Amino acid sequence: MYEEEARLPTHLWLEAKIRELMSEGLPVYVAHKGEKTGGLVLLKISDMAGRCRLLTQQRDLEGVLGWENARGSDVVEEEDADSYIRRSIERDPDLWVVEIEDREMRNPFAC
After folding, report:
1. 12 within some domain
2. Does the predicted TM-score (pTM) go above 0.85?
3. Residue 55 maps to which CATH number?
4. Residue 75: is it exposed, middle or buried by C-beta count within 10 angstroms (0-12/13-18/19+)?
């Protein structure tokens, strides 16, 4: 297992990152607010043409937080993504959902 590191509460981390992205002109908003201190984040990155990427936070074996495709494939239809998001929130109401519009579908949260 990994050692617990000091973690910034999810809502503070997201507020700062969203502010940064908006100052860069990237359309981004919180579609669902989850648990303030420890909720995981699901990103929906839309190309604004009906396709999107769904990325979820996951820790690796060393405890490092990263991003993985939530649906197994890199690009999904927006209807499928929205359905997956609804089911995910039903299973985990603590989940945060952040929607981003970027024609190139880049993950601005990746380090």
Report:
1. no
2. yes
3. 3.40.1530.20
4. middle
> Encoding tokens for residue 35?
């648990």
Task: Report if residue 96 sits inside a domain.
Answer: yes
Beta-bridged to residue 101, according to DSSP, are 46
* Residue 3 binned pLDDT confidence (cut-offs 50, 70, 90): very low
DSSP H stretches of helix in the chain: 10-23, 78-91
Q: Classify burial at 84, counting beta carbons within 10 Å of its beta carbon; exposed 0-12, middle 13-18, buried 19 or more.
A: middle
Here the tokens at position 22 are: 């908006």
The CA distance from 81 to 24, in Å, is: 25
Q: Residue 78: how many CA atoms within 13 Å on its side-chain side? A: 11
